[in-house]
Amino acid sequence: MQHPHFTLAHWCLLVAALLPIACAWLAKAGMIGKPRREGGYDNTNPRNWLARQKDWRARANAAQANSFEALPLFMAAVIIAHQLGANQAYLDILAFLFVVLRILYAMMYVADMPRARSSVWAIALLVNIAILFIGYR
User: Fold this and answer.
1) Which residue, among 102, 81, 121, 87, has the nearest Cα to 16 in the 3D structure?
2) Which of 17, 18, 20, 30 could make a disulfide contact with 67, Cβ separation 3.0–4.6 Å?
């Protein structure tokens, strides 16, 4: 009997799940502990505080939202690929590529690079679709 093991693609699921949290942390960076009257982070009403942010903080928050939006399809694609017995090496490469692209996407979002960001988003979506169908026979 073969015992299942944690693959690189599984680790990529974890990283992808933590990416929105990293984006949220970035949006709040330097503002936690600062008094609210000086614009500091408001943990009592965090969504309202984030909604009032401008520039790179607002973009980091938007990257957080988009990272959450991309997560279900990625998780489903990796799980389905494993269930279908996809070639593990190809699956690992594609999952790793997806995570790298999503990290680049978040960085480009924060850096205000909309055209490059949209291109990376589209490539990541195509990689995700490839993951979904990699085990298809």
Assistant:
1) 102
2) 20
